[in-house]
Design goal:
Blueprint (H helix, E strand, L loop, with lengths): L2 E9 L5 E7 L2 H15 L7 E11 L2 E4 L3 H13 L3 H8 L3 H8 L8 H11 L3 H8 L3 H21 L1
Antiparallel strand pairs: 1-2, 1-3, 3-4
Length: 157
């Protein structure tokens, strides 16, 4: 499956060229781009530098994968019409933690934190955990554990 990349190409320290490209991986995309620009460029290329950032198309924009979790949570919160403070109050997650997640500073928040936020924002927890970088096994184990804790609390009363 091909991935999408935001490519920034610097040729001879001139103004960079930016484009969205797709390919199997960064190595393949870099080789194709370098070959293409060397072939079509009439000037002598002394230096070519390519920077790639994996992206995904969401709500009409290409969003860097590294900021995908931040984008999903922030856009969902805004769509619900609630502030970070209100999300914090409703979910029980510290306001600073929510701010860091939305800024992309917390790349892989705990499963419990994401579960609490997902419930309030009506997000698919499986998708949120996948975007955050959790494996299928980690997700299944955490959801089974959470379900068992909930059932224990219900039947304890």
């Amino acid at each position: 499956m091909n991935k999408k990349y935001n490519a920034t190409i610097y040729i001879n320290n001139e103004k960079p060229i930016t484009m969205i490209v797709s390919g199997k991986d960064e190595t393949e995309v870099s080789k194709i781009l370098a070959g293409f620009f060397i072939k079509i460029n009439k000037k002598k290329i002394e230096k070519i530098q390519i920077k790639l950032e994996e992206v995904e198309f969401i709500n009409g924009n290409y969003v860097p994968i590294k900021n995908l979790l931040a984008t999903i949570i922030k856009e969902s919160r805004i769509k619900k019409g609630i502030s970070q403070r209100e999300l914090s109050r409703r979910s029980g997650v510290d306001n600073k933690t929510i701010a860091k997640i939305e800024l992309g500073e917390r790349k892989k928040p705990t499963i419990v934190t994401l579960l609490k936020i997902s419930v309030i924002l009506d997000l698919n927890i499986y998708e949120v955990l996948t975007v955050a970088g959790y494996s299928n096994e980690e997700i299944e184990n955490s959801l089974i554990h959470s379900k068992n804790n909930i059932l224990d609390n219900i039947f304890r009363d």
